[in-house]
Amino acid sequence: MARLAAFDMDGTLLLPTHQLGKETLESLYALHQRNVILTFATGRHLLDMQAVRAQTTLPAWLITGNGTRIHDPQGNLLYGCDLQEEVAELVMRTPWQTSASIHLFTDQGWFTDKPLPGALEAHSISGFAYQLCDLQQMSGRDITKICFIAPHEILLTLQQRLQQALGARANICFSAWDCLEVLPPACNKGAALARLCQHLDLPLAECMAFGDAMNDREMLEQAGQGFIMGNAMHQLKAALPHLPVIGHCETQAVSRYLNHWLSTPHPDYSSGQ
Fold first, then answer.
1. Interacting residues of 22 by C-beta distance below 8 A, sequence separation 6+
2. Is 216 assigned a catalytic role?
3. Distance of CA 110 to the CA centre of its chain
4. Residue 33 class from Cβ within 10 Å (0-12 exposed, 13-18 middle, 19+ buried)?
5. Which of 149, 151, 155, 188, CA to CA, is 20 to 30 A from 98?
């Protein structure tokens, strides 16, 4: 039986409106009552997720920045990792010949050089927002991750250029169809979940995890039970064809699965798609 449940947020636990549905909240409370450890594993910033967690009033662990930070329910830091300064500087200073917007993240917040109002819609719960600044005046020190936002086809070309330039010095992955991230090497949600389980003296086999994008791949692979959303990126479904697909975030499919799991200790689940 699973003793820890790890949830991606956007495209998984949250509705397309980036809100928590009533049924989802009820299912999370029911898990907590069963003493299942709750973990929100996301690309979002800690400052953003603290507000989301406060809305739930649940004592959840936070894996933020796609595994660059782990915090306990009281807000204490368990683990942190930043990009190497020279790698961050290279990504920041290189003219990549792309129309993608660039976004830098530090513990202090989210920084970009051009307004992108549409990107703020995902943070309506917390009010978390970017700070406009001259990125060329920022240091490459203490940067947790760098994101590029653009249509997917543009990011595919940029992904190749970044991989050629950075090699093994960074982990480059899609956290959404229109968001490409540059992370510290070997830094991902799966590695973070493994660190958390080691801290809790809990086998990964006793975890279940839910996700929808390529930044969830390692977490879904390593958990004892991994579940892919019906609305997931097709690359994720192709990479993990052996994992069950449970339905769409729009219909709160995670909640439907959890309710089934709570009533059936060892369920064989069909999403009814």
1. none
2. no
3. 16
4. exposed
5. 188
Which of the 8 DSSP states describes residue 148?
A: E
Local confidence band at 264 (pLDDT 50, 70, 90 cut-offs): confident
Q: Are 75 and 148 in contact (CB under 8 A)?
A: no
Nearest to 259 by CA among 29, 14, 85: 29
DSSP character at residue 116: -
Q: Are 268 and 244 in contact (CB under 8 A)?
A: no
**Catalytically annotated residue among 8, 10, 48, 212:** 8
Beta bridge partners of 38: 5
pLDDT 10s digits, 206-229: 999 999 999 999 999 999 999 999
At residue 91, the pLDDT reads 98
DSSP conformation class of 3:
S
DSSP state of 10: I
Residue 227, strand partner residues: 210
CA–CA separation, 93 and 137 (whole Å): 10
